[in-house]
Design goal:
alpha+beta; Aminopeptidase; 2 domains
Length: about 350
């Protein structure tokens, strides 16, 4: 039964999957990682899920998909990826939503709940979070800074906003015989081989093949996911997996072989994905992650690119070439219920990161 706030008509409400997913698609801060479909996908990977919504008269005003994971030593972590959704920072909504999230997280036995909102700086949401007992987290899961490409422009203007070398490389790929096609589930094992090659070269961890197969199957069936593959003379050179929800699209997984890199297959792939997203009515294309130093001082890195190759620096020069707007989110925030467990968790996490065994999404 809904619990009523006597000061307003705002209540904690139940919303079915269809209503929630439509709300996420239409919200300016909606994100694929907050959909019920992402929740089911993560459930298959070992997470529990719970959705908390507040609204008036059965209409959703704001809400959050919460994931809960059992960790070693009996710890349980609650995590809200790219949420909450809606104007959750409004005083009345926050006063209803955060206690409900607390209650849900505690019911699952979580030692903390981590929020990572799709909210860009500067934002009044930070002070709202702090008043609700959240503190900036030393650990984020999603990249804090990224680049958004404006897909509302004509294709010619999107190209014009790119660096000349990037435009040249897009055309060079075609002249050098690179062919881009949409892949199917049958292509995923070969794509994963290239992902492993990329992982070894660039030093990041991977999920098992089954994880990416399940992601592709679920979201391709919804017609919101594409696997773009670049070939030269029948040899797969590179691939990217791109997702869409509402008017946004995200480049989330990618791989490139060490072979024939001079043919610029990755440039051709990204342009193909942008054109696909634009045809589907998307307004933004998210390149999913750049070094946070750039997000903190984008004017410093507009033309200057360091020679660093660690972390996200290795792909920053490539992503920067597509133009777009540098965006920095407010970051991750933790509400801790058990401080000792929280400290233990961060010690274990730093150890895993040093070993390179934390695959992220």
């Amino acid at each position: 039964m809904s619990e009523r706030n006597h000061a307003t008509d705002l209540t904690v409400i139940q919303a079915d999957d269809a209503a929630w997913d439509a709300f996420v698609a239409g919200a300016p801060n909606g994100h694929l990682l907050q959909t019920s479909h992402w929740g089911r996908f993560k459930s298959a990977a070992g997470w529990e899920t719970e959705r908390v919504c507040v609204g008036t008269g059965g209409t959703i005003r704001a809400g959050a998909l919460m994931l809960v994971r059992r960790l070693p030593l009996g710890l349980r972590l609650a995590y809200v990826p790219k949420g909450p959704v809606g104007p959750w920072w409004e005083v009345e909504i926050a006063g209803r939503l955060f206690p409900a999230l607390d209650q849900a997280a505690r019911a699952h036995g979580a030692f903390m709940v981590k929020l990572e909102p799709e909210e860009t700086e500067p934002s009044p949401a930070v002070s709202v979070l702090e008043r609700a007992g959240f503190r900036p987290s030393p650990q984020s899961v999603q990249p804090r800074s990224t680049i958004w490409i404006d897909l509302t422009l004509p294709e010619e203007e999107i190209l014009a906003h790119m660096k000349p070398k990037t435009r040249y490389n897009i055309r060079l790929a075609e002249r050098k015989g690179v062919v881009v096609r949409e892949g199917t589930a049958a292509d995923l094992p070969a794509f994963y081989v290239i992902m492993q090659e990329t992982s070894q070269r660039d030093g990041f961890a991977l999920h098992p093949l089954a994880y990416y197969q399940d992601a592709f199957k679920r979201f391709a069936e919804l017609d919101v996911c594409r696997l773009f593959l670049a070939y030269y003379q029948g040899q797969m050179l590179a691939g990217i997996m791109v997702f869409q929800w509402g008017t946004k699209a995200w480049y989330m997984y990618g791989a490139s072989s060490n072979a024939e890199r001079q043919r610029m297959p990755n440039h051709a792939l990204q342009w193909a994905a942008m054109r696909w997203a634009r045809r589907r009515g998307c307004r933004t294309y998210d390149l999913w992650g750049i070094p946070d130093e750039v997000g903190q001082a984008p004017e410093r890195y507009t033309e200057t690119v360091t020679e660093r190759q660690d972390g996200l620096w290795g792909v920053y020069r490539f992503k920067q070439g597509f133009g777009g707007n540098v965006v920095r989110y407010i970051g991750a925030f933790d509400r801790v219920y058990a401080p000792a467990a929280h400290q233990l968790y961060h010690l274990a996490l730093s150890f895993r990161r040093r070993l390179g065994t934390f695959p992220g999404l």
